[in-house]
Amino acid sequence: MSQQSTSNTLKPVYNLVELGLDNYEENELVLNTIHDLYTFFQNSNNCTCHRTPKQRDLRTCFEKVGFKRFFERHLELKALEKHELDLFIKSQLMAFELTNEKSDNKTKIKHTYKYNYNSSLYLCQPAYLKLCGINEYLLSTLQDHLQLNGLTECVHGNTGPASKTESRVFLDFNITFPIKQFLVQYGTIHGFPSPL
Fold this sequence. Notes:
Layout lengths: L1 E5 L2 E5 L14 H15 L18 H5 L1 H12 L3 H15 E2 L13 E2 L11 H8 L3 H14 L23 H18 L6
Antiparallel strand pairs: 1-2, 3-4
């Protein structure tokens, strides 16, 4: 990686072949995504996995996945529409959920999740959030919605159907042309009102 100076800011230049991303075109989206993920990968404090001294592999969870695979999945998820991403995350949360079978029904059930890249590679929550391109608040909102409503789509705010009245008028040329003529004649005779 080398540095180039552009308008008093240093922008890194990444070698796509070195990163294994030679199939990708060097455009702003790809380069910004690479920079964002590369800086995330460089800071090992982003991984909050619980490591013990007895572990053989001390790499962070996202290093085990690898930059290329992490980047490709991140771009795939970035390309999804919002409702598609919500459904994807909710379906994964259903698979990630660890249930406590011993808890009685009287107490509030605490839901815990074990995040994965695939069935053999586990991720900590910050790495999973980075992979999906979401924040902690959205993840907790999706978790709550999943527990209350299942996989149904989230409906936010005043998105109900518009009220239908019997006096609905459809404007066509036969209605709009006489109104336009009236306004033009009124404007030539009396003048148009001042916008001030």
